[in-house]
């Protein structure tokens, strides 16, 4: 294949660069240039077998490595990865079109911060053991938290580096070994991760990378050597993985889709709110699981807010994702663009009004772009108000009174993110408490490494981040002292 910018010939398995056992290749195009960007070998089932076996043998000694030593190793890993942060951010931006300033933080810096956070958490020892007074009989019980074993970590293409690290950092900190299956479109950046792990002296086999498609993912999920599955991706795939794990009685964390509500309260300041919504609703071109893509407005201020939101969306800088001033780059693939455009058609034909956007931008002569799009006159039961579009498309819904706002916000199959916008933080907090969602932001949305993140309903099962994210890779043993 000619014109390939980045090419890899080997696979990182068991701490070594190995020749793939199949001739199958993965290649993909840069969504801005529409030219073939990268090519690498697809792992085969045999490669997965080798990776799992190496992980099992690494786990046998890593599980008994003292927490302080595990933490020191993770700190070295953080350092070697930090040296490659800019390179990794640029790779991701070229793989999936993410605006470079966002990639610098989310895909470059944040994975390093997560390694450090979990290293410090296990080094503190707080999570390892506790002794409780027994009930009803006298005595004490010692509770130990042990690593679950080999983890199959499966990541999507929208935030490949950080979502992989949501799993790798707590799993390694807990004493587990990881086999990572990145998304086929965004596997190249995980080569940087692998190289940094070697440079940091991570024991061989503790981390392997097996690029491949859904079929390879299925094989990994049900592999007899895997003890736990951690998945981020679509609700459709999550349902299938959940079924497989149910059959196998295998612990699983599922971080899935969303259609989160932004509840704008009557007292919200229009400028501050609309500026905040630019990030909360359009982050990564709307290809963000927790994005606030349903904006609920008080009917008395509907016109004022809808005008301001439409003009904010129209002013978002669209362009080359490698240009630091860009906010809206292309969507990650042609397929994703087609999917988003078909939802826009559905919105129009269902009677919703396009307030801005609604097509592909004239300013761009190449790239998988969709204009930031705002739909008004949307009814809560329409497809565009209920289904995850995963693009730069928001819908505006009017509500009458806060009970109505809560009813609309909670009338969703999903429950992952959400935001409340108000001048009165205590009041916004009370509204957040009534939302059926795993996480809610007040006057903005930002993840917190120290607090759990995850969904309810079709948005998933289990939590990542915080001490809860570590617990997801541990199982407890109770020793009763009679
Ligand atoms: P996807 O489900 O198609 O694929 C995700 C990953 O799973 C890929 O690596 C894919 O190869 C693999 N896969 C797919 N089917 C599988 C199966 N049956 N068994 C094992 N592996 C399988 O999702 P996507 O299109 O890559 O990502 C977009 C979706 O991810 C959106 O729905 C988005 O909301 C969701 N997402 C959720 C979160 C979260 O934290 N909740 C974060 C980011 C993205």
From TrEMBL:
Alphabetic keyword roster: Oxidoreductase
Molecular functions per Gene Ontology: geranial dehydrogenase activity
All copies of domain Aldehyde dehydrogenase, residue ranges: 17-479
Catalytic residues in the record: 255
Similarity comment text for this entry: Belongs to the aldehyde dehydrogenase family.
PANTHER family: ALDEHYDE DEHYDROGENASE, ALDEHYDE DEHYDROGENASE-RELATED
Taxonomic lineage of the native organism: Bacteria, Bacillati, Actinomycetota, Actinomycetes, Mycobacteriales
Keyword Oxidoreductase found: yes
Organism expressing this protein natively: Gordonia sp. MP11Mi
SUPFAM superfamilies attached to this UniProt entry: ALDH-like
Protein name: Geranial dehydrogenase
EC number: 1.2.1.86
